[in-house]
Structures are given as structure tokens and as C-alpha cells.
Batch of 3 targets.
Target 1
Amino acid sequence: MTAADTPTTAQLPKRRKYGGRKKGSRNKATAAREAEIAKSGLTPLQYMLRVMRDQKAPKEMRLEAAKSAAPYVHPKLAQIAMEHSGDPDKPVEHNHNVTVRPQLTKEEWLKLHPVAGQSNDVAAAARPADQRDPG
């Protein structure tokens, strides 16, 4: 068996995963930290939101609390780096035509791919002229 014959991990069948922690479950440190925060009664995010909503607090303080809480409430949108360049009068054209090779008959395929035991003259005749043995 050569290296080319060995299947890659993408070619291996998927197996069911057994054991381990379930996806999304908390580890001990995270669970302990969340329990401690819940026991205190007020999370930092809840405090920032409370300051932001307090009508009596100064406007600058409310704005700063809103800026600090925003990443926890509204995640940033993914940025896609795309560069658009070129002439605006001549936009790029996209051609989505698909070229399909013609279907070969069994005889045509055998001429292109000789099998063991086939005479060399048939196999040689099936090859393009530049690949034929000059001998």
C-alpha cells in the first residue's frame, strides 16, 4: 500500500463520538464563577445596563455604560474583506456556464485506458501521437 492509496481523514467515514463533555456544557471553573456571580445578586452587565437606564445619572456616564455593555448585548458583525476595483463604466461580467465533458462509450473509454492483457498496438493506437513510444 503506497502513500497515495492511504485514505485521508476526509475520506474516512464519520464515527459517532462517545464520551467527553457534551457540547456547550460548562467546565468546573466556569460553573463556579457563574454561581459566585449569581450569588452576589448583580452581574457587571446588569450593573452597566442599570446605569445606562438611570434617567438621573449624568449623560456621559450613561453613554459610557452603554458603550461598555454593547459588545455583550450586540455582537459585532463579521467583516468581509473585499476589494472592489476597476472601471465603474465597465463592470466585471461573471460567466457561470458549466462545461460538461461528453460521455464516453465503453469502447472509447477502453481505448483511452488500456487494461492489463490488452495488446500494446491497441493501447498505443489509443494514445495521442505525442505520447506514443517512438521505438
Target 2
Amino acid sequence: MTLRRSLLLAIALFALSSPVRAADLDNPTGPQPTLPTEKLTITTRDGKVHEFNVEIAATSEQQTIGLMFRKEVPAGTGMLFDWGGVRNSDMWMRNTISSLDMLFIDPDGKIHHIAENAVPQSLAVISSDGPVRGTLEIAAGSAEKLDIHVGDVVRQRIFGNAP
């Protein structure tokens, strides 16, 4: 067997054994398994502290699937997209069947922008309106119910301000 053939065979075997393949990302058919969770708090401008237990979407595969196909996002939970650095965050709701609030968070943990009540299964782009370090998805209506606003502080290890 030639070196080229061996290399092609190795690549093909790796692609087949990989837990998430490109075709799965383009056309997922169900929710991803629950991701590792961590604590996160949001301190509002009036000093109230709200605690969440959030899944951490750190890899591009995890971020691509996000909360797709999840029937609900219980109160006090969510998903934090760790962008690994500062960047613009453009999200959408394709295959996401429960409405969400999206909080776009600066590198220092301050909420930069909030998109409330994102429409399930919409292909409309929901933008951070500027560079952010992370994006937090929580159940729709949570921002209003908990009185969370732009400028409130998210405390979590990726922002270097965990309690």
C-alpha cells in the first residue's frame, strides 16, 4: 500500500470514528448530550444576585448545536458559549424549539447586549452588536422576570471574576 493510500485510509477511518461529523453539524437530528456544567451568577444594578447552573459550550461542535432540539430550558439553567476570546457573536434559532433570551457578555463580565424572546426555529441572525467574550442563553422571559439589563455583571471563570 502506498503512503498516499495509507494516509487517505487513516483520514477516512478517523472521520468515521469521530463522535461528531461535519454532516451531523449541518443537519443535526436531536439534542446534543448535556455538556459539563458550571456555576454562574448575574448581579443586577440593584445588587440582586441570580445563580445559574449552565452548560459550557466550548468547542465549535458544541457551539454549532447549542440548545437545538431541547424541549425546555428550566429556570436557573442555560448554556454559556465560551468564544475563547473576544469576537462578534451572531446566533440563530434554527432547530431550537424553545424560545430563549440571549445575553452577550463583554470580556470583563458586563452584559453588552440582550436579545429577549428569540423566536424558535427562526433563521434570523441575532447579533451581539459588537465584540463579546461569551454568549449566555437562558429561558425566554428570564431577563425581564429577573430584571436583568445591559451593564449588569455576569460572574464566571471565563470572565476572570468568578466568586
Target 3
Amino acid sequence: MNAEVDRLIMEAQRAKLTERRTEPRHPFTRPVNIHIQREPGVLAFAKDMSKQGIGVITNLDLKVGTIAVLTIHSTSPRPVHLRCELRWSDPFGKDWYLTGWKFISAAPAPTT
């Protein structure tokens, strides 16, 4: 069992070495709804965040360049709605994707 845990830790450390961002990332685990056009939102989860964007784990295989409104859970009574662009998407296990979204602007609450 320890060898398997060590392997997972090595994968996480290797990911840190390939970091390309200029802004520091902050661990940020919250529910996120991804709203594309007028489709119903799809539940996903944030992984980390910087001032420029957010990493989200989703089961959607989205095309890079997709524009969406991300509704991010807040500890205040109102969630935060941000218009974002999908900058990259990497497989993250069977039928899961780690995605990187760039913040574009604040957005009104989506209507579906």
C-alpha cells in the first residue's frame, strides 16, 4: 500500500515542477457550476485558484476556447458568477478532466 501512496505523492510533486503560471495558486476546494450558453449548469469542483483563473475538475470533455459562466460557491449568502474562458483541459482519470479557466469578467447569474 505504501508504494501506491508514494506513487501518488510523486505524481503531485512532478505536477508542481511543470508549473507555468506567474501568479501563485491557492488551494481552493468549492462546488462550481459550469454554465455554457443556455444549457443547465453542470456541477464540478474547484481545485485551486489564482487572481487570473481557476482550476476545475469536471466530467465534461470541453473544447479549449469554450466561454462559460462559472458559478462558484461562496461562504457568503451569494455565489460568485464569473465569465471565463477554458484555456486548457487534461485527462484526470477515467471520464474526468482537470481544466484551467481564465477569468474574463463578472457575470450576471445564469438563467436556464
